[in-house]
Amino acid sequence: MQDGSHVRISNVSKRFTTTSETLLALDDVTLDIEHGEFVCLLGPSGCGKSTLLRIIGGLTEPTDGGVTIGGQTPSDAQAKKELGYVFQDPSLMPWRTAEDNIRLPLHVNRAMNKDSAPPVEELLTLVGLERFGHYYPSQLSGGMQQRVALARALAFGPSLLLMDEPFGALDEITRETMRYELMRIWNSDKKTVVFVTHSIAEAVTLSDRVVVLSGQPGRVKGVVDIELPRPRTADMESNRSFVDYANDLRKLLMQEGGDG
Amino acid sequence: MDNPSMQDTSTSVRRRLVSAMSYVVPPVLALLLAGIVWETWVRVSDVPIYMVPPPSEVLKQLFWEFDFFINEGSVTLFEALVGFSIGAGVALTGAALMAHSRFLERSLLPLAILVKVTPVVAVAPLFVIWFGFGPIPKILITALITFFPVLVNGVTGFRSVDRGSLDFLRSLNASRREIFLILRVPSALPYLFSAFRVSIPLSVIGAVVGEWFSADRGLGSVIIVAHSNLDMVTLFDAIFVLAFMGVGLTALVSVAERKALFWHESSVVV
Ligand SMILES: Nc1ncnc2c1ncn2[C@@H]1O[C@H](COP(=O)(O)OP(=O)(O)O)[C@@H](O)[C@H]1O
Ligand SMILES: [Mg+2]
Prior knowledge:
The complex is a heterodimer of chains A (about 260) and B (about 270). With about 260 residues, chain A is α/β, with parallel strands linked by helices. Chain A has helices spanning about 50-55, 75-80, 100-105, 120-125, 140-155, 170-190, 200-205, 240-255, and strands at about 5-15, 20-35, 40, 65-70, 85, 160-165, 190-195, 210-215, 220-225. In chain A, about 30% of the residues lie in helices and about 25% in strands. In chain A, the strands form 2 sheets. Chain A has a 6-stranded mixed beta sheet, sandwiched between helices. In chain A, strands 2-1-4 form a 3-stranded antiparallel beta sheet. In chain A, α3 (about 100-105) packs parallel to α5 (about 140-155) and α4 (about 120-125) packs across α5 (about 140-155). The longest helix of chain A has 18 residues, at about 170-190. Chain B has about 270 residues and is mainly alpha-helical. Chain B has one domain (about 60-260): Orthogonal Bundle (MetI-like fold). In chain B, α3 crosses α6 (about 135-160), α4 packs across α6 (about 135-160) and α9 packs antiparallel against α10. The longest helix of chain B has about 40 residues, at about 5-45. Chain B is flat. The chains are: A alpha/beta (about 260), B mainly alpha (about 270). The complex binds adenosine-5'-diphosphate and magnesium ion.
């Protein structure tokens, strides 16, 4: 591993121009993310979380500033298959079985396939779907589909996992289960994760660090280190310190204006 | 899939047979009834045979001249299928290019629309002058008439991809070619099959219209000759064979569609 930060976001701004108006979605965002760190981007809807994640992933170009991933541009990181993306919708291909969906990334940009890529069976077991490899997405529940999407993002052994409200479309109960499943999976090989959410509980449970964004224009309002012991369990949610962190974040979110 | 018992298999075969019958039996009964009404009407009201022939005569001739109708029918079928393949092939290539470039779409689509709104019947004689009396003008007319539905649905289909799947492939640095093959082609299939269901019957029309203008072979020319001889029985036979051809081809497309689109909502029977 290289020295220094894994992801470096330097003075990133993003302006969207439509025919009628321009909108400043991100205003001068600077952030460093360490190797193996789990960072949540927390903020209200429309504050630019997805846009920031897309800029990190090289799907959107910033208007100003730049991002490096392990010292390279996002598009170089894409080309080396260093980025595993999970979206709010599972976005699986309905004509492929779960297994074939997970295998799909290996058929793309083949030159960059790594020997370290885990076998599909292992991935299915990791996400708890060992018996469902032959199922089509329409035969799986929403939570199961999102597990497939997660396995697919891990299939080619990326070093950075970008997750955009991956549990946002799930019911509350499944959501909680998935949270601890993700923790278990992450504990096994500590990838760097950038996780977008608008749920405070989710942010506290998962993160090493929570970056709170303010809305319109999106700015970094504050950064909170979550120093709860790992592995994190569901019991912790009633702990004094968990509740304190949640309250801190809530206060930060409610606070008027930028950089408090 | 895992290990269905023999009994499961045989009951499911039986169930499928029953459901197939439930599709076939009602229309066959309706057809039979229509035939009986028609026959009775012709017999009772003494319509002259050079106006409307009784179905019994039509079937009798079809039976005795079966080889003749099969031969002429296969000429028409050949022209229709080759024409459709060319029309659909050119349309798919065009659609793939247009789906990738708004510029190409803007320059080529008006041309395609121009071709579409021009009545085929009007250009058919021209094709005969240019390409002579063989199968080529018929094939070209068929290609022309089947081309447009496939083009338009192809452009829409190749573009109608799931946003997240596209982003995912992009995040892997997939090439345009990979995105086309892995995502765009399967996503377009529902649109393409709707186009085929329109174009396939059109292909038979194209072949027949082509034969009207210049042919000594094919059901189109059979119709023209029978018409000038006031030979209504042969005329009706030609129409029957053409109708049967249309039904058969459409059924084939439906079967292929059901196989290819097993994953698509439209194939879920409610
Ligand atoms: N492609 C785009 N074109 C124009 N405006 C956009 C585009 N993408 C996002 N926006 C705008 O940028 C703002 C931030 O959007 P987004 O990053 O999706 O927010 P979040 O993910 O936090 O809900 C919103 O106001 C949204 O309308
Ligand atoms: Mg979002």
